[in-house]
Write a structure and sequence with these properties.
two-stranded antiparallel sheet; alpha/beta; Rossmann fold; 39% helix
């Protein structure tokens, strides 16, 4: 690991630890503690109360709540139903493709994704839940970290996203001979979703810019949303949304395809550029709603200003 990479990881870890997200929702695990140990109140079964009712012939006698029956004077026999709580599994799927290397304010999208990954895992640590991570690129799953306690996953997950530079990865692959794998027609996102679909119902965060999503990817994401609770976090940069408010000739390169195009920054072109982005955003929002996925947008320049968005996003899960 290079010295600049180590310093980047240390800086991100300091940022994550010093900017915790307040947890306003409960874990599915009984009595979560900050140290990840599952406990329960004295005299409690540790199970979640689901409903109360009146005993009828044929019901299981073990469901009778004798204390509640005594409180009503024995006029009716009360029953209670419990549900066995289970650990909540988090999966964080992080896009580390070429387009994530773009950024003009504060940081690039990939390092913003590393900040968000750390914040999510830190939140899971506070509730004592377990986390897995999948870093993927355009055609590959770059690294898969199996589900473990959030406390031990925090540093490896942030380090994985920081080290997953598409530029360095491309240099390494050019230097390898015979190392290419057969293309099975699946993209990196599809392979990542296939990996997490092997697990039981989980809370899945997908952090990506969602540029150039194929129809096959959309179909697989819809299927994953049926099985899991999927949250999509769309990372962006200001220059994806609008051109600089100044006259001049600007040259753009598509980081995924390498295509280069020059554009005059006139008022008319700036309006067209913004309108094209809004059209793409509207289409993406409609897809997320159709797929029943929660989603939010976070830009590279926001920093701490993104916290309210994350808190609102988290508040809708596992209440």
């Amino acid at each position: 690991m290079r010295n600049d990479t180590r310093e980047t990881i240390r800086r991100l870890m300091r940022w994550v630890v010093s900017h915790p997200i307040p947890i306003t929702w409960r874990s599915n695990s009984p009595m979560p503690s900050p140290h990840g140990r599952k406990g329960r109140k004295r005299g409690s079964t540790g199970y979640d109360l689901v409903s109360r009712g009146v005993y009828e012939p044929g019901d299981d006698p073990r469901t009778i709540d004798w204390n509640a029956t005594a409180q009503v004077g024995g006029q009716e026999i009360c029953t209670v139903q419990y549900r066995e709580p289970r650990d909540v599994k988090f999966f964080v799927l992080v896009d580390c493709g070429k387009s994530m290397e773009f950024g003009t304010y504060r940081t690039v999208k990939r390092l913003l994704a590393a900040e968000l990954t750390g914040s999510i895992i830190k939140s899971a640590e506070e509730t004592g839940d377990r986390v897995g991570l999948v870093a993927y690129s355009e055609q590959h799953v770059e690294r898969f970290l199996p589900v473990k306690a959030a406390k031990v996953m925090l540093f490896p997950s942030v380090a994985t996203v920081v080290e997953a530079s598409a530029i360095e990865r491309a240099k390494q692959r050019r230097g390898q001979r015979g190392g290419a794998t057969a293309d099975d027609g699946k993209t990196g996102l599809m392979k990542a979703l296939r990996a997490v679909n092997q697990y039981s119902r989980s809370l899945i965060f997908i952090i990506s810019d969602f540029i150039h999503m194929s129809e096959d990817e959309k179909v697989m994401l819809k299927k994953a949303a049926v099985r899991h609770d999927v949250v999509c976090i769309c990372v962006q940069d200001l220059r994806q949304r609008e051109l600089p408010d100044a006259f001049g000739l600007y040259t753009f390169q598509d980081m995924s395809t390498g295509k280069v195009q020059s554009v005059w920054s006139t008022k008319n072109n700036r309006e067209k550029f913004k309108a094209n982005f809004e059209l793409w955003r509207t289409s993406l929002t409609a897809f997320f709603r159709q797929a029943h996925c929660d989603w939010t947008e976070i830009s590279t320049h926001e920093g701490e200003a993104a916290f309210p968005k994350l808190m609102r996003l988290f508040a809708g899960h596992r209440r």
